[in-house]
Structures are given as C-alpha cells and as structure tokens.
Hints:
The protein is α/β, with parallel strands linked by helices. The protein has two domains: 27-113 and 138-191, 3-Layer(aba) Sandwich (Rossmann fold), CATH 3.40.50; 193-308, Nitrogenase molybdenum iron protein domain (Rossmann fold, 3-Layer(aba) Sandwich), CATH 3.40.50.1980. It has helices at 2-21, 38-47, 70-78, 93-100, 143-160, 165-192, 207-213, 232-244, 259-268, 283-287, 292-308, and strands at 31-35, 52-56, 81-84, 106-109, 197-204, 216-222, 249-253, 271-275. It has a four-stranded parallel sheet, with helices on both faces. Helix 7 links the parallel strand 5 (197-204) and strand 6 (216-222). The model is unreliable at 1-29 (pLDDT under 50).
Amino acid sequence: MKKILSIILILTVVLCLFSSCKGSETPKGEITVVCSTFPIYDFVKNIADDTVNIILLDSTTDIHSFEPTAQDIMALSQADLFICIGGVSDSWVDKAIGSANSEKLSVLRLMDCVKQVNEETVEGMQVEEEEEPEADEHIWLSLKNAKLMCKGICEKLCEIDSEKSKAFKTNLNEYVQKLNELDKQYEKVVSLAKVKTLIFADRFPFRYLCEDYGLEYFAAFPGCSSETSASFETVSFLIEKTRELNLRTIFVTESSDMKIAEIVKYGSNADILVLNSCQSTHMAQIENGATYLGIMTDNLTALESGISEHDN
C-alpha cells in the first residue's frame, strides 16, 4: 500500500510540474526569454514585442537567497534565451543550465555588458575579516548601466530573431530615451544638492548610483552582506557621522528590518527614507504596475528629499 501511495505521489508531482509549466511553452514562431530578476524582466518587456514570451523566475525572495525550483528548471529547458545578472548571487546559474539540458538555450550575463566596480569597505562599515573584494553585482541601480544592458539584450534578441530586429531596435531607442531623461533628472538634483553624502543604516547596494553622480556614502554593511546585526562601533559611527554632517535623513533599502535605522534615528534625530533596490519586486507588484523606471523615479524623489533639505 505504501509503495502504491508513493507511486501516486510521484505521478502527481510530475503532472503538476508539466501542467504548471504548460503556460510557458513557446508557441510556434515565438521566442521565450527567461529572466532571473525583475529589472531584467522589465528591460526585456520594453524592448521585445508581443511575440516574445517573457518569464520571470520566482521573485518572492531576495536575489541573494534565491534557489531555482523544479518549475524554474523546466522553464529554462523550454527557453531560447536566459538572461541573468551574472554576479555572486548567481552561483546557481551554471548548475541550473546544466539541469535544463537544452541545446537551443542561449545565456546572457549582463555584468559582461558594463564596466564593473568592486564592493568597497568605507569608514565605519562592518565587514567580515576574511571577506575578499568582489565585483558589485547591483549594476541595474545605475541608469547609465541600464542603457548598456538594454543594448546587450536587444542585440541578443536580434540574433535569435533577426526578422524582428527593426522592431526591437525601435523599442530600444524609445526606452533608452526615457532612461536618458531620468538620468538627466538625477544629475540635476545632485548638482543642486547642498549635501552629497548618504548615510545608510543598512547594507548598501547603491554604489553604482553613487559613482554615477559623485555621491559619497557611509553604510552599515556592503551591498551583498548577509549581516543583519551591526556592532556597537558601527552604529555609533553612523550616529556620529549623521550628527557631524548635520544630516536630517538616513536611508534604508526596501527590505530593511529597520532595527539599525531606528537606533541611528534615535541617536541623531534624523528621518528615515527608503531607496528601493529592486531586489525583491515580485509578480504581484508587477501586475499592479511596478516598473523599473517607476521605482527609480520614486528613488529620485526620496534622494532629492534626503540631500537637498539641510541647514548646512
């Protein structure tokens, strides 16, 4: 009886896997693109047309803790193109591609499309002693990088479906114009700012953004840190630096538990603002209208509020 139940359970799981992936099968004449993160999904959505089937892997967890499911592997096995960031958090990619066992699958790692910078340790930051500098993977938080990544995506789509290359390139140009416009708004806001230093009572994934606009920063942890509890020395440093610079605002990411931020706020009397790193945007939010440009526009509003209203 137990053996029969086991067989029934296995068959049920297999049927569920195939039925759950049925919606991602590629109709004749179309191409399927699987995206590892929300920013990539949104880039492809703006460059491709209705004949491209776009799949976002499970995005209910932060990219630093993502593990592919059986359904994700099934999606890869049926796809024409898989696009990932290609950073330290994508250590699962090669194994997943091997498990997909697809001869037609092409892979685009977007870190190959941009100039990379390493994560850095700034004054006051808490890091593990044995940590070696790694390339900062948060490349999508630079609008300048976003333009380069979109170009790389367009080129790959054109390779796979050359007949649609004109439409892809037209869509790319229109989207890049929007990225350029927002990039100029960032440049203007920072150029008029009274203070050009950010205090992050959190991990810090925004180095590329700071590099783009000449902003300095102090933070509790590097961008890919798994730490959540800061030392007394780190918290004290952030409080004193906030006071020293007479800052009215400190920042956190959208996934912060706010514990460090609340202590720094109490010690410095600063307000807390959120900059969204796009690392855990999920399909329900996308269906409710979340877009990369929308999030980066909201970030600009928060940034402007945080760096322009000071007594200095």
